[in-house]
């Protein structure tokens, strides 16, 4: 049953402001608005929920493990989860689209209902909020975050959402759904232009993560510098972000990172990585948002130590060798994600994501899978124009990128070779871990299968003799080692085996 209001949205005047007004940006030295001065002017406060869980996902393709983690936090597959699709609905509608909430049903939730109105009068009624009092999970969809605030901020519905946490439930969202979870709306302008930052009068989020500004899609859309705008202007604000398919799972003041990529912390005057304004966190890491300190690193639990990796790849610090990157992960925890000889990238992009490396014969893994995955037919309202690709290989990459959220993996113009990075190949590997990513495909095609140290090894190399790049998986351990180098003489296979000896 869907709980959709029969009333159309009640518009607010600012939403009809002229494009010129909406495009205005606050000056860096402008005085804070009253909301910001009141919220952030008295020092740090406890950040996370006293009870329950906040589940903040950086957008994009989410992945089965994140769906499962949210469902578990809600109390299991039979718990009532309310899907709130306002962010994704840009025009006045009396009911939500039929597809709302379907992703949760597809991924194992058996009791999903849709909560939707664009009327503040309805959102402030006891009848509308009655179902929220039974819910164990609230999920805000992506889109434009001002739409949720426009409909629910200051209403009985907003107060009922908070009670879900107080009962020990979970509140989460992806993309714009993540943005509303913090106190500060980084991109809250009532506009379809999501490049507008820190818009006066529209800075207030729902506040489930206090004294915090949240951002999303930060690697996929190269947004990594943007939170510095907020933390420079409001030094007491903690900025946190997550890349696509990656979540902050916050209990109390401690957040654990899970998913397909990285998360980032912007703490004005605090610890950062070298040459960038943020601290990087990896799946398996935990961070205290109140003390603003790392609690633990997945790398600390790894049998593959940083010093060992540094010694193995030391020679690639020399720029003339073209650089190298390596990623080691097991059971969803990323132990190693390092670059060697890679200069700082534009817009502070991770040096393991950019630049790209040619992957050579590893692309047979892609083409073998593409031969089994049919091209998707146009879906949705109306007819979609077909997307044309310059080559079958480019079309193959595009077809496989969507389900796992690859954005940088491409076939350069005039080339016949895929270029990628260790971070995106890890996304691809996680897709292979989940048989529902490409249903009915035989995932073993394109790989060499043998035994290493008594366990099955599934591997692909850039060359027949194992030079330049290695993509190695140990399915029984849910472990992977990925090495990419520009040195044609790099013995990637031998290096991967030395790493596996430590890992196994």
Give short descriptive properties of this protein.
504 residues; Rossmann fold; ten-stranded mixed β-sheet; 23% helix; disordered N terminus
Description:
By secondary structure, the chain is an alpha/beta fold. The protein folds into two domains: 31-296, Rossmann fold, CATH 3.40.50.880; 301-503, Beta-lactamase (3-Layer(aba) Sandwich), CATH 3.40.710. Helix content is 23%, strand content 22%. It has 15 helices and 23 strands. The strands form four sheets. It has a ten-stranded mixed beta sheet with strand order 1-4-3-5-6-2-10-11-14-15. The chain has a six-stranded antiparallel beta sheet with strand order 17-16-23-22-21-20, with helices on both faces. Strand 22 and strand 23 (479-485) form a beta hairpin. The longest helix has 13 residues, at 392-404. The protein is globular, with a radius of gyration of 23 Å. Residues 1-30, 39-44 and 377-385 have low confidence and may be disordered.
């Amino acid at each position: 049953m869907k709980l959709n209001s029969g009333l159309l949205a009640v518009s607010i005047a600012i939403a009809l402001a002229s494009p010129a007004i909406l495009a205005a940006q606050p000056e860096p030295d402008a005085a804070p608005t009253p909301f910001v001065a009141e919220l952030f002017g008295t020092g740090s406060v406890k950040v996370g929920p006293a009870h329950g869980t906040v589940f903040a996902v950086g957008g994009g393709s989410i992945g089965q493990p994140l769906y499962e983690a949210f469902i578990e936090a809600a109390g299991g597959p039979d718990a009532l989860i309310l899907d709130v699709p306002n962010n994704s609905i840009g025009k006045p509608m009396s009911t939500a689209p039929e597809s709302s909430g379907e992703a949760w049903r597809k991924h194992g939730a058996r009791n999903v209902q849709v909560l939707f109105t664009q009327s503040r009068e309805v959102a402030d009624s006891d009848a509308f909020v009655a179902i929220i009092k039974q819910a164990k999970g609230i999920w805000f969809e992506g889109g434009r975050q001002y739409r949720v605030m426009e409909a629910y901020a200051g209403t009985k519905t907003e107060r009922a959402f908070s009670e879900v946490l107080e009962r020990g439930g979970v509140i989460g969202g992806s993309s714009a759904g993540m943005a509303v979870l913090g106190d500060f709306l980084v991109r809250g302008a009532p506009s379809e232009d999501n490049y507008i930052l820190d818009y006066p009068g529209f800075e207030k989020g729902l506040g489930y993560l206090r004294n915090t500004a949240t951002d999303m899609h930060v690697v996929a859309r190269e947004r990594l510098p943007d939170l510095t705008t907020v933390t420079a202007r409001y030094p007491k604000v903690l900025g946190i972000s997550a890349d696509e398919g990656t979540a902050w799972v916050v209990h109390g003041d401690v957040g654990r990172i899970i998913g397909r990529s990285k998360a980032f912390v912007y703490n004005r005057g605090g610890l950062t990585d070298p040459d960038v304004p943020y601290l990087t966190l990896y799946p398996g890491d935990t961070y205290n948002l109140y003390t603003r300190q790392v609690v633990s690193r997945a790398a600390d639990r790894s049998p593959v130590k940083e010093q060992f990796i540094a010694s193995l790849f030391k020679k690639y610090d020399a720029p003339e060798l073209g650089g190298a990157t390596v990623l080691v992960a097991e059971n969803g925890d990323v132990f190693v994600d390092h670059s060697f000889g890679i200069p700082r990238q534009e817009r502070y992009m991770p040096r393991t994501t950019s630049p790209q490396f040619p992957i050579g014969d590893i692309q047979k893994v892609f083409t073998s899978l593409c031969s089994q995955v049919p091209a998707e037919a146009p879906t949705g309202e109306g007819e979609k124009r077909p997307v044309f690709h310059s080559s079958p290989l480019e079309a193959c990459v595009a077809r496989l990128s969507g389900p796992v959220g690859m954005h940088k993996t491409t076939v350069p113009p005039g080339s016949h070779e895929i270029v990628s990075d260790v971070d995106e190949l890890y996304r691809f590997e996680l897709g292979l871990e989940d048989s529902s990513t490409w249903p009915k495909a035989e995932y073993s095609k394109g790989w060499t299968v043998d035994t290493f140290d008594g366990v099955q090894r599934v591997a692909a190399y850039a060359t027949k003799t194992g030079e330049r790049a290695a993509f190695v998986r140990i399915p029984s351990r849910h472990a992977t080692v990925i090495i990419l180098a520009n040195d044609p003489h790099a013995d990637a296979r031998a290096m991967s085996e030395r790493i596996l000896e430590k890992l196994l």
